[in-house]
Amino acid sequence: MKIWVVGDLHGCYDSFCALLNKMDLKSNDKVICIGDLINRGPKSAQMLDHFCNDTRFSSVLGNHDWAFILSKLAKTGPIHSDFKELEESPRAAMWITWLRNQPFSMLFDEYFLVHAGCWPLWSLPQHQQISDRLHQWFKQCSQDELKILDCYLPTVLASSNEIFDENPIKSYAFAMNVLTKIRYLSQSPTLKIAMDLKGHPSKVTQGTAWFEKYEVPSGYTIVFGHWSALKGLQRPGFEGIDTGCVWGEYLTAFELNSKQRITQPALELRAGRSG
After folding, report:
1. CA dihedral sign, ordered 26, 28, 34, 37
2. In-domain check, residue 275
């Protein structure tokens, strides 16, 4: 059995289908998106249908995926141009149910799969425990709880001793920021996420890339997406597989057993950066 992990798809369905042809999938193979199935690209609905209707396909949640859930269920969260079309589809409830049943991370033997990255003070088993707890809450929480979550997300950028104790939703917000949005850590005395910093580390001086601070246990590899500016970073312990298909670059898939990478040049027109 082959287990393919595919970088951020962002509705680039034509490129994805071309990549699948190169995989030559068998009935027992698996394809896992590293998050951000939808938004920015032209065919988010087709992408969701494909993943919902074939049990070989699954995903970890990315920030664009949960933003669609918040937009539909709580009428809040980041506003993206194609959410209205998705929300008005007769298949919207099916898509939402499927997305809410996808985890925020997966720990496969020596691989940890996550959309964005890891918090330097948590071990990989701790990440998975926190991710599992977040997932159990997120798939059944109420509209009002989602609205509270949305209020916390922009502000809860550092962890505290109260995680999951005194204020669970605040803790969930921090966990979501780590698992689905982290890129840089601030260089201030207090360790926190520098949410506004983007771009390649060679061009950013105010923060430190999260993977520069995270000590991966021997024998383990973190597979992540979310950061197309890294152009498919490969270094011991890390496999970055967001290679900017929606920006006109290419899709990348990484097979866990063989460590093989395959790529597909983008077939869609380059998306606008304001999307």
Report:
1. positive
2. no
Burial bucket for residue 235 (CB in 10 Å: 0-12, 13-18, 19+): exposed
Domain annotation covers residue 172:
yes
- The angle subtended at Cα 80 by Cα 77 and Cα 85, nearest 5°, is 110
Q: What local confidence, expressed as pLDDT, does residue 269 receive?
A: 78
Residue 263's region, left for phi above 0, alpha for psi from -120 to 50, else beta, is beta
254: domain CATH number?
Answer: 3.60.21.10
**Stretches in the chain below the pLDDT threshold 70:** 161-165, 270-275
Count of domains forming the chain:
1
Q: Does 274 map to a domain?
A: no
Whether this model's pTM surpasses 0.90 = yes
Domain range enclosing 219: 3-265
The CA distance from 210 to 184, in Å, is 5
Q: Do residues 110 and 65 lie in contact, with contact meaning Cβ atoms separated by under 8 Å?
A: no
